[in-house]
Each structure stands twice: as C-alpha cells, then as structure tokens.
Amino acid sequence: MARMLVKGDDLVVRLAWWEKAAGRHRDVRVPLAAVRRVTVEPDWWRALRGTQEHGRCIPGVLCLGSRRHQGGTDFVAVRPGRPVVCLELWPSAPFRLLAVSVRDDAEGRDLAGRLQRSAPEVDASTRWRQPLPVPEETDRRSAGMSLLGPAEPHETRRT
Question: Where does the record place the region Disordered (predicted)?
Fold first, then answer.
C-alpha cells in the first residue's frame, strides 16, 4: 500500500512495486514548500476528481494513478472503505492534489498533523479541501465581474 513520507525537504509518496506497475508511475516526490493544505477525507470517493489519465481504477478495489480535470492533474492511491489523506499543492507543483489511503482515522489524523508541521507554507484557515476553480468563473472574476454580472455603482439621487 502507498505511504507518504517526509525525506529532508521533500514529501515522497512511496509505492509498492505492483502499484508502480499498475499506476504506471514511480514514487511521487514534491517539495514540502509546495504543500498548500492537508486534510483527511473520511469518504475515499470524495478524493477522486476528473477522469483517469494513467493507471488503474478498479471499482470496489482501488484507484491508482493520475487523474486529469480542468484544474490540472491529481495523483491518487486510494482504496474503498479507508480514509484518505489529501494534500492540495500550489500551482507550481506537478500535481494539484496527492491523495493516499491510510488504514484508519487515527493514522490519517496523525499523518496529517505531521505533514502540517513539516510543510512551511500550509494554509490552515479551513479543514476542508477547496473546490476546483471553474474556468468561466475565474475569467469573470479576473475581468472585474461578479458571478451575477457587472457590478452596478450605487448612486443615490435626490429629486
């Protein structure tokens, strides 16, 4: 089973030999500075976003490999019925999310706590993962528009 380890200034997702073969991927290594948020997802299926790009997803057994969505690419190594430690990463990282199953809730909370203490730039403002940005909404916000259209200036007229 995949495991998350801290090695120096890097976070490593170490895969078993058969996971490397099934997921078509070597161990994943990202700098700890790339970790944005750490959460524990009690429902394994909530960690899955997008469609399978590389690897294997066998319903009811495991989902392993990279998944593509509008926000980028995630790397997952999850098993049904187990909690998942989710690491949101800053956009400069090769993945947007790393999701790895753990044996139980206690192990997940312990691992999440250690990773939060190890990563220098963790955003601890919320315990929940943030939703993926929707391209149309992102474009509107950058153009100075709200989701409801252009903002109307508030003028008070006296007649």
Answer: 113-159
CA–CA separation, 157 vs 43, rounded Å?
54
- What radius of gyration do the chain's Cα atoms show? 19
Which residue is it, tokens 């709200």? Answer: 146
Measure the N-to-C terminal CA separation of the chain; round to a whole number of Å.
74
The length of the chain is 159
Helices of type H across the chain: 17-23, 105-118, 135-142
Q: Alpha-carbon distance 11 to 32, whole Å?
A: 6
In order of 89, 117, 132, 137, the CA distances from 35 in angstroms are: 5, 11, 16, 25
Determine if the pTM surpasses 0.85: no
CA 113 to chain centre: 16
Instruction: Tell me the sheet residues that pair with 74.
Output: 67, 97
CA distance 146 to 138: 10
Interior CA angle at 26 toward 24 and 31, to 5°?
130
Alpha-carbon distance of 142 to 45, in angstroms, equals 32
pLDDT digits (tens, 9 = 90+) for 124-142: 666 666 666 655 544 444 4
